[in-house]
Amino acid sequence: MNSVRKLLTYTKPYKLFVILAPLLMALEVTMDLAQPLIMQKMIDHGIANDDMAYVIQMGTLMIVSAIFGLLGGAGCTVYSTRAAVNFATDIRRDVFKKVEHFSSKNRDSIGSGKLITIVLSDLTLVQTALMMTLRVLVRGPLLFIGSIILVYFQARELFPILLVLIPILLFFIIFLSRKAGTWFKRVQEGMDRLNTKLQENIAGIRVVKAFVRKDYEIGLFKKVNDSLTKTTMTADQIITILMPILMFVINIGIVIALLLGAIRVDEGTLQVGVILAFINYLNIILMALMTSSMVLMQIIRAFPSAERIQQVLETENEIERYVVSEQVSSIKGEVEFKDVSFSYSKNGEHVLKNISFTAAKGATIGIIGPTGSGKSTLVKLLPRMYDVDHGDILVDGVSMRNIKLETLRSSIGYVMQKPMLFSGRIKTNLRFGKATATDEELEAASRNACATEFIEKFADKFDRQLTQGATNLSGGQKQRLSLARAFVRKPAILILDDATSAVDASSEATILQALESDFHETTTFVVASKISSIINADKIVVMDDGALVGMGTHHELLESCPLYQEIYTTQAQIGGVAVE
Ligand SMILES: Nc1ncnc2c1ncn2[C@@H]1O[C@H](COP(=O)(O)OP(=O)(O)OP(=O)(O)O)[C@@H](O)[C@H]1O
């Protein structure tokens, strides 16, 4: 309920539409309610007394009221649509903004499948619920209450029938709505699972094919899909069963009215027009209850969706909760890890344990260690993808949590283990590094990343369009473009996380050379699996199972660190590094 109230604040800019829609609906309802009343007068006074002038007068009144009703209904549709669509657009914009600000931990905890369901499905449900509410929820109760009042005044003899019927009708509506609510929550959760599976398979289609797991994945998808179908069917059946129940109860009411009415008419205490008006009002009540309960279902369905949207909007970005206390406008690049420990989940096992080392401005720090030892995690902490749990990381002597996030991140060039490029031109992708970069700067960065050689071969060179996920590039080409994107920034701190793994040995040597000559002012962290990539680093940090087990230059480590010696010997044996 709280979530719904908070989400409704998004209707504020569209207050006028929100007010006009129900007002226009009220006009339509008033006209609808007037129709049986006019008709009753036409029959009992006009037709019964053979008064044609009165019949024509009443007929004209019916047409005029129908026209006003039509105008009211059309106006309500226009304004309710405007209010609901704009309301949803604004929420979608804010959810996207929020997701863009998410820390990696936030994103890990919600999951991309759920985020997509929220933006596409949950939001549509909430939008439809608002639109229906503005259109029908006003109409339903107005018709319902109006009909009851009119029956009381126009057909009081038959009013007791209503007193019995209404509680029965309300009982079924409340009981079945509650049941449907629980099931619709399950439908949205099923949708999350379906989206996650779909996303995974679209992204990993090549792996599925290469490992001949097509049938296995189809089987898994079928399970998720079937489960969603079952849940949706149960939820829908609960809704659809409501309508026949309501109709059944109302029809019984009509039969009773006809029986009782016939007796009274026979006795001469009731006019036929009254019975007709009563049956008309009963039908209006049925329609009102049916449409109201449809909207009620829609609202009930939208409740869990509103909660899920609100959950995203209210997620506290743990990275941004710190107060920026230091006036740091630019970063030089001196970095110090001070007793840093980190785990991906609350109370989870530490994947980094008490790490301490310093990196002087312009130094190159090599990071090596077995797989899963925490190398990537260590460098992910630098742009604050995640925040440390214990200890601190100082940049230029200031705790990075006290430096404005934008200042920190815009000083870092990050080449991730898995290159990620966007659909669009090569140029546009490179300018991700520096929006104002000139063509010359792009060319220089590409040269340093050994990317020029393949870009030049494209007919449209830097204007070459990349497909989604850059599937029209090779692994090595993607990696070189990622490197160029980071180089173009000329950052104070450069992170290369296994960034040359798909690059041939001679190109890697050229890239490392370029780093030495063009980036000697830049503090560079090089995560590597090959010693040859970091052999000339000023300092090499050796990681094992989240702990720092050795630190020094290549020569120092060969003397002092058994794990480094082991890596060196293994790589020397397979020819990965020259034996000294
Ligand atoms: N997003 C994540 N959520 C939970 N655990 C994670 C996450 N990323 C990594 N880990 C875990 O943290 C540990 C360190 O992983 P990390 O990627 O830092 O290792 P690495 O040394 O870079 O490995 P590699 O050389 O294979 O890339 C591993 O045990 C891994 O399972």
From TrEMBL:
It is found in: Cell membrane. CDD domains: ABC_6TM_Tm287_like. It comes from the Bacteria. One of its GO terms (molecular function) is ATP binding. It is a multi-pass membrane protein. Pfam families: ABC_membrane (PF00664), ABC_tran (PF00005). The chain crosses the membrane at residues 58-79, 136-153, 159-176, 238-263, 275-300. Residues 19-301 form the ABC transmembrane type-1 domain. This is ABC transporter ATP-binding protein/permease. It comes from Metabacillus rhizolycopersici.
